[in-house]
Every structure is written in C-alpha cells, then in structure tokens.
Request: fold
Amino acid sequence: MFYICIIVYLYGDLAIYAAAVPISLMEVACGNHSCSAGSVKYNDTDPCWGSVTRKDAYRVFLVSALVYSFNLNYCLLHLSHLRLFTVSLLL
Reply:
C-alpha cells in the first residue's frame, strides 16, 4: 500500500509540473508580466510571436518540457551532460 501511495503522489506531482511549467513559460514569453492574475485577460487565440498564438506557444513549451524531462529520466542523460551540450551549442 505504501508503494501505491508513493506512485500516486509522484504522478500527481508530475501532472502539476507538466501543467504549471509550460503555462508559466508561455505567460513570460507572450508578455503577461503582471503580478495580479485578474487585471488582464488573454484569449488563447491572441498572437504571441507574429502568427503563433498563445495556444501554439503553450504547446511548444509543453513538448520541450516533456522532451527535456524524458531525456533526464529515461535516456540516462545526466544534468551535467545536458549542461555541457547546451554550453557547447552556445560557444
């Protein structure tokens, strides 16, 4: 029973992060920098970057967060390897 509770808890955390991280990145990238959530209302079809809508930007960030976490969890890619790869791309 203990292991079932741990599994449910971890999948719950994963679901929260899978929803919160892409939404936060989309809000920052698309220009919602207000601290109060109720002051400005945005629609999913509002433009974010030219012809890219806010919904499309959310999907881009969702896929990139999933690919990033998949590589760290299942492909034996460690965080230090990922940092070295990222730095080598920037140089």
In short: The longest helix spans residues 2-30. Residues 61 and 67 are 10 Å apart (CA to CA). The helical segments are 2-30, 54-74, 79-90.
